[in-house]
Design a protein that fits this description.
Blueprint lengths: L7 H4 L13 H15 L6 H8 L13 H17 L8 H17 L2 H7 L7 H17 L3 H26 L3 H13 L10 H13 L5 H24 L7
Helix pairs in contact: 2-4, 4-5, 4-6, 4-7, 5-7, 5-8, 5-11, 6-8, 7-8, 8-11
Length: 245
């Protein structure tokens, strides 16, 4: 005789945990984010998460198939935070710039989680919503579909790559991060012009800029390129050349 099917909601815990909280996906993800911030990725295990929640570790499998499934949920929550409260202006370049900065900032708000999730594809609701909005901005701006996908690809990879790079720096121990930052003053700023003329000439600028993220500059360069491409496309259409999508 086959076993009766138990729905996902029925499998989930209704009684409070030892801490007095009722388990939910949101509570588990928030607790996992706290554990990542305090202990890094090595400290995030089902057993430790169960202890932090005051629940039997096996209870977590009612919500997630394992740590990897939880990791995807964490990544999707970070994207959701980037989208929260965002209202487009109707100007595609300004809107894309703000979205990019929001995504970058959301990941840097949880650097340990960013290192763990920035290279993952979740396929979950917030990620799909972000992709739909970005592609919509580009297509409504007038980009051909092939160009919209190409720019979208560069845009999202750039945002996540810089998020991972900058988050990895923030996730370093404070002493290691301070030592890395000091290298620009202690080494590069003191190189003689006789042997390193180009570094010596730009040393003050290097010291001033190199410890900050280059993401805003890189984002503007990407959007400038896309804007120039769109202008050329419109000029070509105005001259009577056929428009292709």
């Amino acid at each position: 005789m086959s076993k009766p099917v138990v729905t996902q909601d029925e499998r989930r815990r209704r009684r409070p945990t030892k801490t007095g909280a009722v388990l939910s996906e949101q509570l588990i993800v928030e607790t996992a984010l706290r554990m990542l911030r305090e202990h890094g990725s090595a400290g995030l295990t089902v057993r430790r998460l169960g202890t932090a929640l005051g629940a039997d570790p096996s209870t977590l499998y009612r919500y997630f198939s394992g740590i990897d499934d939880l990791t995807l949920a964490i990544g999707d929550v970070l994207i959701g935070r980037a989208l929260a409260g965002w209202q487009g202006t109707g100007e595609w370049r300004a809107d894309l710039r703000e979205l990019g900065l929001r995504i970058h900032a959301a990941y840097l708000g949880h650097p340990q989680a960013a290192v763990l999730t920035a290279n993952r594809v979740t396929g979950r609701a917030h990620e799909v919503a972000a992709d739909e909005r970005i592609l919509g901005l580009l297509r409504r701006a007038g980009f051909a579909d092939a160009d919209a996908v190409r720019i979208y690809h560069a845009f999202i990879d750039q945002a996540l790559a810089f998020a991972a790079l900058d988050a990895a720096s923030l996730a370093l121990p404070e002493a290691a991060r301070a030592a890395d930052e000091e290298v620009w003053r202690a080494t590069y700023a003191r190189l003689p012009a006789a042997t390193h003329p180009h570094i010596a000439a730009t040393a003050p600028l290097l010291v001033a800029r190199m410890n900050d993220s280059a993401y805003p500059t890189a984002l503007d360069m990407l959007l400038d390129s896309a804007q120039a491409q769109l202008a050329a496309r419109r000029a070509g259409t105005a001259e009577g050349r056929p428009e292709t999508r």
